[in-house]
Amino acid sequence: MNRLGRLATWGWWLHAATYVVAWVVLAVPIALWLFLNSSATTVIVGHDAVLRPTLDRQITLHTGPFLPDVRQDSPARFGVDITLGKTEARSTDELLQRYAFIASQPEGQIQKVESALRELAIDAAVRGGAIAAVPVGIWVLIGDRRRRQLMTGLATWHGVAAVTAVTLIAITAWQPWDHEERTMTDEVSWRPLAGYVSGIPVPAEAKELEISTDLSTDQTKRLIESAIATYAESKVFYTRAAERAAELPELQDLRQPAEDETVVLLITDRHDNIGMDKVARAVGDAGGVTAVFDAGDDTSTGKPWESFSLDSVTAAFDDIDRFQVPGNHDHGSFVPDYLAERGWTVLDGEVEDGPGETKILGVADPRSSGLGNWRDETGLTFDEQAERIADAACDSEDRVTTLLVHDADSGTPALERGCVDLVLSGHLHVRVGPEPVIGENGETGYTYTNGTTGGAAYAVAVGSKPRRTAEVTLVTYRDGRPAGLQSVELQTNGVFVVNDYVPLTYPEAEE
To answer: Is the pTM of this model over 0.90?
Structure first.
């Protein structure tokens, strides 16, 4: 290439670089403006909530007209303004206790806010880049000759009139003279939480928290002091339990898997107790699990305000395989749809590949959403659904290793027909089994019911500690079949009980 050719090439690249720089100079401030003027609607701490990015480097939570707002410094270079809306609670006291409990186990809510802000930032960047490309593209398409003609035209009275008209239109749209009226929010002052509730110890992680002082009645202070106590008790109880879980293999003979074994953690009936999620994961890590089975009743009503519970269990197990079936308290489609969108395999009557080269089948409790191939059929009874799931198991080309259901009765027909190795369930809130069942074809299967992982009394589990003994079970697989079960209990006093490992044998395989 001769010198003129090289100069032409360099000139082309210089022009291209100039246009790229111009695009970036326009795109960055436009994207930032769009980001700071955007909002996202989601569900936070059991409320419909609106999130707005800010530049004040504060995380501010607006709780509504009857409770004080709170804020703390943001670890990022920008802040977020969260306005809470509608929720379901029977009293202000119950609402504050819920806030305290969720705040003590915040991982799921933090991930949700970060995800919403990340989506807003990506959307603003894409839109900002597209908008910035318009003037740059027009500039390129016009060309040098036409640009010179336009610049010459600006010196005429026609050009002056056009520029004036565009300026007036822009000012009219902007309306800089239109000032918003000052509101009560503008008059709010902030105090450190420790100064607001003087006389009671404030947890170290809450010392930077500030509270608005526009509401400061004695009743409000008492409610907040009670919430602080709940926060501290919950944080201490579940954090210590998770720490002690790591010591179970040495102190209480928690079984460790062999090289040819796969271990899965079984949880069920959490009923919104997000405190147990980190404990369950810690027990699973101590036992070498690589997947989790969730047998349902993650919520108490199945309503969107309980998404904090689903966010928490997702955050706890987000890096391993996850399988779930909705329970009778997970009413409607919200729970399965929400979990499926977040990477869970929500079983719906089809045989799936399970952990450890196994086959898994599952279905929602018919008293909830009635999922399955028969989902469009109305009036299906519990017994009829149990027969349908048995048909699905017996018609499968591969033997079903695990049948995951909420209520063990849903798996009885499949066991009696000898079409599954192991039925795993919950619902009763107490452990039952494992019990062998010899099917009519001579095959042996087992049924096992795990106790409540949330430590729930009835459908309620939210509190500073479990209301009754909480339980998880380690399910071991070997050579594509269930090989044994070992349950782990956390009592209400914080003491772990590791029950004996129960091997599962299959007599017909030995003949």
So the answer is: no
